[in-house]
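Budget justification aside, the reviewers requested a transparent look at the raw inputs and outputs of the sequence design task funded under Objective 1. We therefore reproduce one unedited record. The lines immediately below are the structure tokens for a 750-residue chain.
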């Protein structure tokens, strides 16, 4: 078994951390590398990649094992995973630094956050590889690290021999990757190696005898004066001072250098005097090493920029925005001026994102950011808060009209359509505005109040702007109170189902009913679904409320079937959130079985937007319902943005004409092409058709004349409670109304 075979065997056994068995001669020459990763598969893959390349490999599967190896053995290189189960990669690097362990570190991490990279670089990591890395990238980085280490070790070794070998000294200095120089007491070069020519374009002859200022950037001359005239020795000498040096002919470009300086001193012995021997330390000049750190500085600048900017839009992110807003507040307080904070939320962006995909959604955000930036004044700051939300600070306002004018510009610039690879997209925005100091004096207060004002615009129909007012805070508190009350409503059985009959206009009989939720609020009385379900959707209550609804509907159907309504179909509205839940079908089937309700008597109403959100998943769920015997209707047909092809792909049985189209019917003999088109689609596909929101005799006659024979609306019946609905059924059948027993409380879980 050779050395590589032995290494592979040790890596694949429980004693994977044991050093490779190699000969004494190989121990001297082969670089020793410590591989640290808590994922066995990745560690094994890394081991196999490096084996056979003249490396002495040692593995560690956790931080404590790595620390143990570092304490016992010397390593040239450590390949380190940051995320370990017991000790973090950063802590291991701190241990290496604290103990003065002479080993380079290459960090390999799957961390996407910028803090991990910054932390590794600050701790002196040679390089930072983000998982997954390429095979070539890893091998090249390892080779470069060991090559650099060999050069540095060679430099140190040869430097220790300078006293005895001038020739070796010259070779070392001229082959160094750093600029090495000496200055006399006047700051003029007495020696400089060839690296200066390679990096800066200055030959040795051009610099010898010249003052160091010929190389230094004008803005750094003052700092350079202290560095290049360093007189201190040992630990007190200048270390890691950064200066910018000039190119000889580089088109005005500069490079940044890290100068490590030490002082050359000469011990002189004076003349012998009869009573006193004089000795003194005479300053002779400065010896220095300048390392090119331009690439490192650029990398640090990129990392710093990305930490404070949104990568997608290149706008300031939330952190930088708060910093600039804080400075603007300080300035406004000092100058006794006002400033405005705006909170912008794009209307209908989620619909575009769900319809065209996230890639097109990102393109839309980029185009929006460009348009908004064009509307700003010099000194204003636009930032992306996250998602489709933007924030703006407008310093030094003359009056509120300045903020209003810019908000109007925003709304105007968003009115023009956006072109997303041939797709014409229209969006708008809701803008909330808070003014310092009247609406708040702290950063968080201004942002919160601007956010509240923005939601006020949303509630009033979107596509507008509004200044914050204290009354809005009361409304916001009312919403919180409503949410808390809604949670209690489930527990205290305050919810109730109402039913709006669906009429066959040929027979005048009730053939179905749509279940509509009502809330018997203790203080506000009977609330319709539109007054509280939006809050339920925003606050994660749709799932328990939908569970309650299924149980309540099944309980009520037992009573209405007992009253002779077995042939009447119940329509229930299905929330998209509820359909997306994996156990929705089981909830429905379990309730029907438990209450003994025929699935054929149930029809689930969905909106077109459900078809857009996740078409394939929605098809699977709806097909399960159809196999069970439940039918499916599309509610509000014609108001969404789905393709008509969904009518072929989805298992649809019924189309409901939205009331917004029905309201347009004012003439029995008029021409209403949208309604005629929907009727034609339903007839052509063999689908059942229901018109909702029928309120006048003219509307009913027009719909009947053109082939829509099932209707619901105030012209026939308003939504009514279960006892009244059963009474209507009994009267329709010519029976004497009988008392309806009070329903038992519905279980929250269906």
């Amino acid at each position: 078994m050779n050395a590589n075979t032995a290494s592979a065997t040790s890596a694949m056994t429980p004693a994977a951390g044991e050093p490779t068995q190699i000969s004494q001669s190989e121990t001297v020459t082969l670089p020793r590398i410590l591989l640290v990763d808590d994922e066995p598969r990745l560690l094994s893959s890394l081991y196999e990649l490096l084996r056979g390349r003249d490396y002495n490999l040692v593995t560690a599967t956790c931080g404590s094992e790595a620390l143990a190896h570092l304490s016992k053995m010397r390593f040239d290189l450590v390949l380190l995973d940051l995320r370990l189960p017991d000790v973090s990669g950063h802590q291991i690097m701190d241990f290496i630094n604290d103990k003065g362990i002479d080993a380079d570190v290459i960090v390999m991490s799957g961390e996407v956050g910028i803090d991990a990279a910054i932390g590794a670089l600050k701790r002196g990591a040679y390089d930072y590889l983000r998982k997954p890395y390429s095979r070539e990238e890893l091998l090249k980085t390892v080779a470069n690290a060991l090559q650099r280490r060999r050069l540095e070790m060679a430099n140190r070794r040869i430097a220790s021999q300078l006293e005895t070998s001038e020739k070796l000294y010259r070779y070392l200095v001229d082959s160094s990757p750093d600029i090495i120089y000496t200055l006399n007491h006047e700051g003029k070069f007495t020696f400089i190696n060839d690296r200066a020519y390679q990096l800066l374009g200055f030959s040795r002859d051009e610099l010898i005898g010249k003052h160091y200022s010929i190389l230094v950037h004008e803005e750094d001359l003052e700092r350079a004066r202290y560095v290049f005239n360093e007189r201190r020795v040992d630990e007190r000498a200048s270390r890691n001072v950064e200066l910018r040096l000039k190119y000889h002919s580089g088109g005005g470009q500069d490079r940044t250098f890290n100068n490590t300086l030490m002082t050359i001193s000469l011990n002189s012995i004076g003349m012998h005097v009869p009573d006193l021997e004089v000795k003194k330390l005479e300053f002779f000049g400065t010896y220095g090493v300048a390392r090119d750190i331009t690439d490192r500085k650029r990398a640090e600048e990129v990392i710093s920029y990305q930490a404070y900017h949104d990568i997608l839009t290149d706008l300031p992110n939330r952190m930088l925005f708060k910093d600039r807003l804080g400075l603007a507040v300080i300035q406004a307080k000092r100058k006794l001026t006002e400033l405005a904070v705006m909170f912008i939320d794009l209307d209908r962006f989620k619909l575009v994102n769900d319809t065209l995909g996230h890639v097109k959604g990102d393109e839309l955000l980029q185009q929006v950011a460009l348009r908004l930036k064009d509307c700003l004044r010099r000194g204003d700051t636009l930032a992306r808060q996250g998602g489709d939300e933007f924030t703006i600070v407008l310093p030094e306002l003359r009056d509120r009209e300045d903020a209003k004018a810019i908000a109007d510009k925003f709304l105007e610039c968003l009115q023009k359509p956006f072109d997303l690879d041939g797709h014409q997209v229209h969006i708008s925005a809701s803008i909330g505005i808070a003014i310092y100091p009247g609406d708040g004096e702290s950063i968080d207060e201004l942002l919160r109040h601007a956010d509240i004002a923005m939601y006020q615009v949303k509630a009033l129909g979107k596509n507008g702007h509004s200044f914050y007012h204290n009354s809005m805070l009361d409304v916001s508190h009312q919403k919180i109170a409503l949410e808390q009350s809604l949670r209690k409503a489930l527990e205290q059985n305050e919810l109730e189902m109402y039913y709006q009959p669906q009429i066959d206009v040929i027979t005048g009989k009730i053939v179905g009913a749509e279940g509509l939720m009502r809330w018997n609020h203790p203080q506000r009385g009977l609330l319709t679904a539109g007054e509280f379900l939006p809050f339920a959707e925003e606050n994660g209550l749709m799932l328990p409320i939908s569970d309650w609804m299924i149980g309540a509907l099944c309980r009520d159907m037992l009573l209405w079937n007992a009253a002779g309504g077995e042939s009447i179909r119940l329509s229930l509205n299905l929330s998209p959130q509820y359909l997306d839940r994996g156990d929705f079908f089981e909830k429905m089937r379990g309730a029907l079985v438990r209450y003994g309700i025929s699935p054929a008597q149930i029809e689930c109403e969905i909106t077109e937007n459900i078809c857009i959100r996740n078409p394939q998943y929605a098809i699977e769920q709806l097909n399960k319902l159809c196999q069970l015997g439940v039918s499916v209707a599309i509610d509000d047909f014609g108001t969404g943005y789905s393709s008509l092809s969904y009518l072929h792909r989805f298992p649809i049985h019924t189309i409901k004409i939205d009331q917004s189209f029905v309201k347009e019917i004012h003439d029995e003999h008029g021409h209403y092409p949208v309604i005629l088109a929907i009727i034609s689609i339903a007839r052509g596909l063999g689908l059942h058709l229901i018109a909702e929101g029928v309120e006048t005799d003219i509307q009913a006659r027009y719909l009947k004349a053109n082939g829509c024979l099932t209707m619901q609306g105030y012209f026939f019946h308003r939504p009514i409670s279960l006892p009244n609905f059963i009474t209507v059924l009994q009267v329709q059948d010519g029976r004497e109304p009988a008392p309806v027993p009070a329903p038992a409380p519905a279980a929250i879980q269906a």
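Residues 135-159 form the longest helix (25 residues). The two ends are 68 Å apart (CA to CA). Computational costs for records of this kind are itemized in the attached budget.
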